């Protein structure tokens, strides 16, 4: 496979960078700003995030839809959930992200031999802010914001769109991401080999009958250990 590999495609959130403040911490501040006790479990937000990608027009709209529904499900008024969403949007700084291990140095090496692309579930404006903060604005081509440009991962469409833009077959690209259910499953559905970088930056044990990545590494800095790459 290494002889035919032409491109390496990446996920963004929790693969290349991480927010300095967790969504739980930002939600706690949002509840305080609205002047209410938590009206829904903050942990429910990341679990439900993907449900609203296809129906939302922006990250702010996603928060309004999601938090409104969570408030109603918790027995509160939808308008209260929307107020929390507005406070959350004001609190969340999309540029307040830190690069994970290996970023950006690994790209300096990879771009000598491979084309680099990005496939990320997220609002294009939001993800552009993160890339600018990381100094990676000009690193990836194409950038596919799934859930907005295409169906969200793990649907194969965003991978197919990226491959079409690169004029490559699935066997000529490798996808790197932190999520088994979103990244590895999506890559498999589109026929791409995958590299799994566990979100905790450790070689987490896989359980159950979930998708099995082609390769598993502890951080992007360990991409050199992937047989398909001569980095």
TrEMBL record:
Q: Nucleus: present as a keyword of the record?
A: no
**Which Gene3D superfamilies has this protein been placed in?**
HAD superfamily/HAD-like, Haloacid dehalogenase hydrolase-like domain
Sorted UniProt keywords: Hydrolase, Magnesium, Metal-binding
Give the cofactors, semicolon-separated.
Mg(2+)
Cited InterPro entries: HAD-like_hydrolase (IPR051400), HAD-like_sf (IPR036412), HAD-SF_hydro_IA (IPR006439), HAD_sf (IPR023214)
Magnesium among the record's keywords? yes
Mention one GO biological process in which this protein takes part, according to its record: small molecule metabolic process
GO MF terms held by the record: metal ion binding; phosphatase activity
Pfam families for this protein: Hydrolase
* Entry similarity comment: Belongs to the HAD-like hydrolase superfamily.
Identification of the protein by name:
HAD family hydrolase
- Species whose genome carries this gene: Natronosalvus hydrolyticus
